[in-house]
Amino acid sequence: MNIISESRTIIKTEGLIRFCTRIVKRGQRNCYYLLIWVIMAISHQSRFQLKDIREGQKERSGHPPEPVENSIRRIIHSYNLARKDQRGQQDIYKISGDWVIIFNNDLQELTQKLQQEDIEGINTILSDFARNRVSRGLHLSDTIPQSFFHKLQLLNCYNKSYSTWKKLTLLPDEVLEYSKDIGNMHGMGIHDKSIMLPSFNQSYFAQKIDRLFSGSQKKITILEIGGGYGSLPYHLFKHTQLDCRYIYLDLPEMCTLASYFLMNHFPDKNFLLYGELEKTHHDFSGYDIVILPNYCLPELPERSVDLVFNSHSMTQMDSATLKEYLRQINRVCNRFFLHANNENEGESLTPDKKYLNLNNPEYELPKTDFRQVYRFPELIRNDGFLIPEYTSWEYLYERI
User: Fold this and answer.
1) Contact 345/359 with Cβ under 8 angstroms?
2) If you average pLDDT over every residue of the chain, what do you get?
3) For residues 26-31, average pLDDT
4) What is the dihedral of CA 159, 162, 166, 171, to 10 degrees?
5) Distance between CA 170 and CA 162 in Å, rounded?
6) Is the model's pTM score more than 0.90?
7) Residues 6+ apart with CB under 8 A from 272
């Protein structure tokens, strides 16, 4: 759709006044990013420059990596079984909200290849997932700049995120770098590698989890609800000394991305995918990384995980689903619940007009079981956007 036909569509659906308002706001925003870029360039305070974006958008050198056939076959078997079993689950564990649109429009090619057990086709899609449609909604392919002003916007996000990240973590810059070989990552190009926007947020949380269990004498079990492509465990296993077992829960299609990403990065780790263990047997002691569809949450044993983590997906659920997840978290969590979510009334209203906010009594863990250690504005967003109105918050709860 070109800009003229797109404009006509917006005018027809929203009206001329709303269309003009959008144009004015976009112009104001572009002027702001242009001004920030000029000021930072003059003062030489920017960690990243436009040349880093140009370098980061370059394709990886050489051909995509050859498929590891055994790993792809495991992913195929796990996905098709997960999709089959998904049909019999409660509605609260099925796809809803924006993910219905993403599934119907952006994931269809991948799901077809998985159903056809097309190893080459699956590897072609997954080896480029950071730049194609399957990662829409994960702040990967949807952050590829489409215009000069989009580049300026991203540049501002990167520089702000970097400045905050450096003050909070004191980690070396190398922690932020991803290899382009796996997923064809993009972002800021550094030393033939890429720095993705989520790497600031996810490496920050990985270090925070590491500090929570500093000095622990036992293996820690971490459960992430809505793990995306697996960026948190990437940083946990690659950049911390924490002795941990990681359990991943997400939609079956996201399980496919995470399995590919993590199995390629950590071939020496012991993986368990859905369907590779009897449902009545929940002993994960022999595994480092366990990847399961979201509806397996009720099957996890009571008090079986030391920390539950979630980032920006629980306030995208409807009221009934959110309450079910909180009930299950209360059941399985033995120590900490760490999460970051929105408190924006304009964005968190559900179809039944209820406002989802995990700081509201209706959506909190029982005070008889958990105490709130802290709640403060999220300083590094997963998408890089820093919102001054404090609509995004970080929380830590500890079992009493």
Assistant:
1) no
2) 86
3) 69
4) -140
5) 11
6) no
7) 284, 287, 289, 290, 291
